[in-house]
Amino acid sequence: MSSKVIKENAVADNEVRNDTIYLPSSDDRIAELAYYKAESRGFEPGFETEDWLAAEREFYSEASIIYE
Fold first, then answer.
1. φ, ψ (nearest 5 deg) of residue 40
2. d(Cα 2, Cα 22) in Å, to the nearest integer?
């Protein structure tokens, strides 16, 4: 699932062009971070939940910095 952001750009005096930007959902980004954590330890099984929770902490930490 992705978020949709519509950006309006003035093209001429009376024209407006809509550009749609699709942003990855938070779950997509968290899954990507969790994947890289698993990859960094050689995909050793049994740490999936820890990887996901660490990825969530990292994601929300990054998000809080961006949106402050």
1. -65, -20
2. 6
